[in-house]
Amino acid sequence: MDNNKEKQIQISVIVPVYNAENFINRCIDSILKNTFNNFELLIIDDGSSDKSLEKIKLIRDERIRYFSQQNHGVAYTRNRGIKEAKGKFVVFIDSDDYVKPDYLEKLLEGIGDSDIGISGIVFLDSEENIVNIRNSKNTEWNRFNLPLSGGKIYNRKFLISNHILFSDFIIGEDLIFSSTCYSKTNRVSNILYMGYNYVENFQSSTHKNYRDLNVISIVSELKRLLEQNSSLKKEFIIFFLRKTLIDLTFYTYDNNREKSLIILNEGYSLIKGKVVLFNKNETIKMNIFVNLTSIMVKLKLGFIPLYLMRKLRGRS
């Protein structure tokens, strides 16, 4: 009887947990309150030193499977989730995020026969104020606009058969994972729905490790992966790589102008090719920054857009 039940599981929800005692209950409650019931919830504690594991063990639901391990990082933990999962589809939810009650239902409806389904994301600050909204749009650019693992549903067989796992790039693991997926398939569904709430928790280990990031390695790997799929528009790839380079450089080296300029110069030397002056699928602000930075780097004035980004984002 248990075997029959296992075969019927449609979605495996994977939640890595590390020192999340302040928000893990909110995350798990939002998942368990989903209107779609045919799922399993894999909660994997990655060696938390706070009371996360204690709180997790107090939650009783037959759909939950608990795992505890020494600290290995989010990439290793998600990969363990993929290997342990029994569902036809896989969904990743971070422990400080939460979802709407119809989230799983909408994602399952939206993916259909595709390998990947992409929905929109609402970005919140630590006080749950909306700071940004990324709608899912029915365009090719959608996969570049939403490179996070949150808000997506994956066909598990597709991941397993293509040996797709998360790489341990600290911050860039979502970017690398998504790009690896897109290098292997064009069967991508754009789900016109937003049910994933991404909470920007700047005290998390993820944010603390930004300065350890090797930006050039990530951009180089993204370029290699995306160029494997010849059907992806080259100008989209270039725009995405330049956008990613600017963002990662800003967050990683925003207090070190000299290092920022070195990274920008190296990155732009790597990302060669013509790009459309205006990407109609992106915001006007991002179009301005991508093009302004391109010009300034060529003029050896790359510090100007970095300075403007600090001012616009409230950094000194």
Automatic annotation (TrEMBL):
Its EC number is 2.4.-.-. It comes from Enterococcus italicus (strain DSM 15952 / CCUG 50447 / LMG 22039 / TP 1.5). This is Glycosyltransferase, group 2 family protein. Residues 12-147 form the Glycosyltransferase 2-like domain. InterPro entries: Glyco_trans_2-like, Nucleotide-diphossugar_trans. The chain crosses the membrane at residues 288-308. Signal peptide: none annotated. PANTHER family: GLYCOSYLTRANSFERASE, UDP-GLCNAC:BETAGAL BETA-1,3-N-ACETYLGLUCOSAMINYLTRANSFERASE-LIKE PROTEIN 1. Keywords: Glycosyltransferase, Membrane, Transferase, Transmembrane, Transmembrane helix. GO terms for molecular function: hexosyltransferase activity. The keyword Transmembrane applies.
